[in-house]
Structure formats: C-alpha cells, structure tokens
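Hello forum,

I keep getting stuck at the same step: I have a sequence, I want structure tokens, and every attempt I make locally crashes halfway through. Rather than fight my setup again tonight, could one of you with a working pipeline run this one for me? It's a single chain of 435 residues.
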Amino acid sequence: MTLLPLAILFLLHIPFVCSSLPSLNGTSVTTLDDSYPPSCSNTRSLWEIIWSCAATLFACTWTAIHLNIPGMDEGKFSVLSRRLGFMMMVLIIPELIITWATCQFLSARDTAKAFNDAFLHKAHNDYGDMGESAATLIGEMSTTDRMNSPHPSAPHVASCDFEGWTVTYGFFAWMGGFMLYVDGKPRATLEPNELLGFVREGSVEMPVIVEADIEDRSKGDALSKGIAILQLGWFVLQLVARYAQSLPITLLELDTLALAALAGIAYGFWWKKPKDVRRPYAVYWKTTVSPPSKLAYEQVDVESPTESWGDFLGTCVYPFSSLMGLSTHNSSRAVHSRRVSSVVGYDGSIVSSRAIIILLVGCLSGAAFGGIHCLGWNVLFRGHAEQMLWRAASLAIVSAPVSIIPFWGYEIWVDNFDEGLADIVPIAIATPWHI
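Reply #2:
Ran it on my machine without issues. Output:
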C-alpha cells in the first residue's frame, strides 16, 4: 500500500505534461504556457499553478509535522534535515504518517489517564476529608521541603498539589519531555511509565510544570497554524469555484489536495502536541536513593547493518514498521543523543491493544487519498492509455487499503481471542478443584 502513492506521483507527471500539449487529432486544447500573459481571468499560467500547489504543500507539511524533542547536543542542521526528511515522507507515504500520529495520540491520552488515576484521585481521597488548617500545614511542609532541597532547581511537589494531566502532558512525556538527572548530570530521557514508577517509589518528585509552560516551549503558535489553515482553505476554495464554473482542474492540483487532506488528518491528531520543543524538562534523582541500573532509552535495539543483508533489510524496514506501530526500537544514534527515536514516541503495548482503531484510521485514510485522485476520472488526457493508467492507479489506491481491513482485522481478532482464551482456560480448569 505504501508504494502505490509513489506510483501515482510518478504517473502524475505523464498526463500533466501531455495535457499541456496540443492533441494529436488537431483539436485545439487550452495549453498551460507561461510565455504569454493571461487573456482573461479564467486563464492561469503554468507557474501560477505550480506555485499555488507548492505553497499549499509546504504550508501543510511544515505545520503538520510534530517531531519529538531532539538531543540536547544536536545542532540546527540535524534538526532541520530530520524535519525535511519527514516532510518528504508526508509526500510519499502520507498514510503511515497518519498511523504514526494516531499511535502517539492514543498513547498520550492513556498516559494522561494513568497519571490522573495514580495521583489525582489519590490526592482527593487522601485529603478530601481534611480541614483547612490541615491543608495549610501540608502546604507549608511542602514549601519547606522545596527550600531545603539539595537541588534548588529541582521540582518538588506533594501529591495533593497534583492538578491533573491533559493530553498535552502525555504528548510531552512521550516525545522525550522529561530528562533524568543523576548527580546533577543528564543521564537519559524517561519513558512516562518509568516516570510514573519512580514517582510512586519516591525516587523522584512529580515534575512541577503547568500546561502553559509546555505551550510556551512549543513553537506552534496560533499565527503559524492560522497561516497554514488559510492557505489550505484558499486552495480548496479555488478548486471548488473552478469546479462549479466547469473550469478545468489540473492533476497536480488534485494530488496536492489529496496530500493536504491527509496532512490535515495527521494535524488533527497532533493538535494538542507541542511543536518544535528543543529542550526537555529536568527531573532530578534523589541523592538518598541508588540510581537505576538501566533505563528504556539507554538500550540500543537497532544496530548498524554491518553483519548481513538481513540486518541491512531490517534497518531499512525499521522506520516504516515504527510508523505503523509495529516496533518501538531504539537506534544507536538516538541513545547516543539522549533522545527518543525519531519514528517512535508512543507506547507499544497501548498500540497493540488498539490495533483495530489504528488499522481503520490508516486504511480509511489511504482510501480517501485514492478517492480524491478519482476526481480526475474524466480529465482530458492526450491519449487513452494515460487515462486508463490514471484510473487504474486511482482505483488501486482506493481498493488496496480497503482489502487489507478484513484480512488484517481478522488476524488481530484471532490474536486477541487466543490471548483471552489463554487467560480463561487455566481458570476454567482450576475452578472444579476449588469447588
């Protein structure tokens, strides 16, 4: 399914160029020539179309991509090249970018719920029946503890001060927002599950950071979002107006519309995710507790392909499998830079439990991508062969993800059924003996 959009992009150039040339049977057709000024308002030059499509794609891809926090020692060139690489992925494999955004959204939502269940409800239960004087005393003790801390800049908070996490907190945690400091030195990025366990054990204090501070670290302000939305809205409005007036629409514009639509879906899942955060939040390990032996983001899972062709193939497939939520490995470069892997940033167990949702979102997005290309079904081509190629490629993009749903869905259902059966059978066998 991931190679079909690339094929349609390749086939796009053949009819687009041919449609700008005179037909073979001598029939006069409108050409896209930028050497002559437009004679009326309905005529557009080739460069006007290319510029409109390029501006729309750039605005959508640049604004939609929400990357994980880079390494503390990484330069601007590394960050920029990584962003440009993901922008190319949006143009080539937009469905996988949507599945990646879906995985991160589900993980962020469940992580926020886990922290709220662990600390917010506990705080209400522990201090719900206290009077005003007791609450004031606890607040004074918490303030004294902060002042006597061996690390003045380290965050300390009592569980009763926990105000609850939102999806933004979950996104921030999974994108590498919390860096563990041991003896005043950065060690590794913490997974949300590790942070939750360390706070429960008392090894670290709950980070004191409000959502406004997270948004302040984000570079995705309302102006940049508004410009992207206005550009996309103006582009769509132009296409709708030309369609209503029975004016021709180029294939390049249809492809731009399809890519922008899928980028917009990913943008919706990332709406609450902080954008372009450069520095994580420091979490200090208590000096009275022995430091942890190992952390999740300290273990290298993907090595350089130096031994066999199998390792080389696995390294090449790894980014695509991670975008689909099939693997959550750490690369040696990510571990060395003390950051989350560029193509992960989600909880593999949460993704596995919601595989059906991710499957439906990815496949339906792929079908919508092909459906938009089907709008060019009756576009005038130079030859019949080019028209049939466009129609066949559009139908293939629509049918491929739709055909995957029943097969992969059945496989997921069987796996879940087997896991449930494995839990039920021992109970059913042991029950008669207890009776």
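The first strand starts at residue 178 and ends at 182. If your local run keeps crashing, start a new thread with the error log.
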